[in-house]
Write a structure and sequence with these properties.
By secondary structure, the chain is of the alpha/beta class. It is built from seven helices and seven strands, in the order αββαβαβαβαβαβα. The protein has one domain: 3-Layer(aba) Sandwich (Glycerol-3-phosphate (1)-acyltransferase), CATH 3.40.1130.10. 47% of the residues lie in helices and 15% in strands. A seven-stranded mixed beta sheet has the order 1-7-6-2-5-3-4, with helices on both faces. It catalyses: a 1-acyl-sn-glycero-3-phosphate + an acyl-CoA = a 1,2-diacyl-sn-glycero-3-phosphate + CoA.
């Protein structure tokens, strides 16, 4: 009975409210960015939009490892990817100005795509490696004064919840820019909204920040070591399911 009621709520209350909130946030974004810049405009639009989405969907977020986050430091953030809700959790609660690396197709999503472009997020054409590299190169100049860049190094959502193999693009950028990597684990979001499903479930998720990792060397072995350290940190918490505050 409870599940049936929540399903009705999802479509007839949550969906209309979030559609209206998305349109409003998008309008504010277009108005504010020219005057306030992407950083402040994003904090005033995208962050409240994300938190509202979580609130209305009955999702509580528990935070762990915030002591690893230096507000003045720019990072290359790497996170696992389980659900569309990952976006709201990271944007709403990471408390860090960052730019997403997202697939080119998302640019075409009404309201959200144009706003992401306006806020400086980076669209990657995964079918054109040269264009993708050029997009990342153009983003490097923005990573100053604490502004960071966020990758899902698996490349796409995990359909079965298992952590996939990491691609090395984020790690090469961290090495080239001499920036620390910040591994982040998301747990519980797959249960909120499973892949290939439109049926939400209220619940609790966790956002865990790990100690920063540096790429100690210019060779491929140093890159592989950084990949393994980040993946091991993320995988360890993902396997345990860190939902109790520490």
């Amino acid at each position: 009975m409870v599940n049936a009621l929540f399903f009705v709520y999802s479509w007839f209350v949550f969906a209309p409210l979030m559609l209206a909130a998305t349109l409003l946030a998008g309008l504010l974004c277009f108005v504010l960015v020219p005057f306030l810049g992407p950083r402040r405009a994003g904090r005033l639009t995208a962050v409240p939009w994300s938190r509202l989405g979580l609130l209305l969907s009955g999702v509580q977020v528990r935070l762990h490892g915030l002591e690893h986050l230096d507000p003045k430091q720019s990072y290359v953030i790497v996170a696992n990817h389980l659900s569309q809700f990952d976006i709201w959790v990271l944007y709403g609660h990471l408390n860090k100005d960052f730019r997403w690396v997202m697939k080119q197709e998302l640019r075409k999503v009404p309201v959200i795509g144009p706003c992401c472009a306006l806020l400086g997020h980076i669209f990657i054409d995964r079918g054109d490696s040269r264009a993708a590299q050029a997009s990342l190169e153009s983003a490097k100049a923005r990573l100053v004064d604490g502004t960071s860049i966020l990758f899902f190094p698996e490349g796409t959502r995990s359909r079965d919840g298992e952590l996939r193999r990491f691609k090395k693009g984020a790690f090469r950028m961290a090495r080239d820019l001499d920036l620390p990597l910040l591994p982040v684990t998301l747990t519980g979001t797959r249960e909120i909204l499973p892949p290939d499903s439109l049926r939400m479930h209220p619940g609790t998720v966790a956002l865990t920040l790990h100690a920063p990792v540096t790429v100690d060397g210019d060779d491929e072995a140093a890159l592989d070591q950084a990949v393994e350290r980040c993946r091991s940190a993320i995988a360890g918490v993902a396997a345990e399911g860190c939902l109790e505050p520490t």
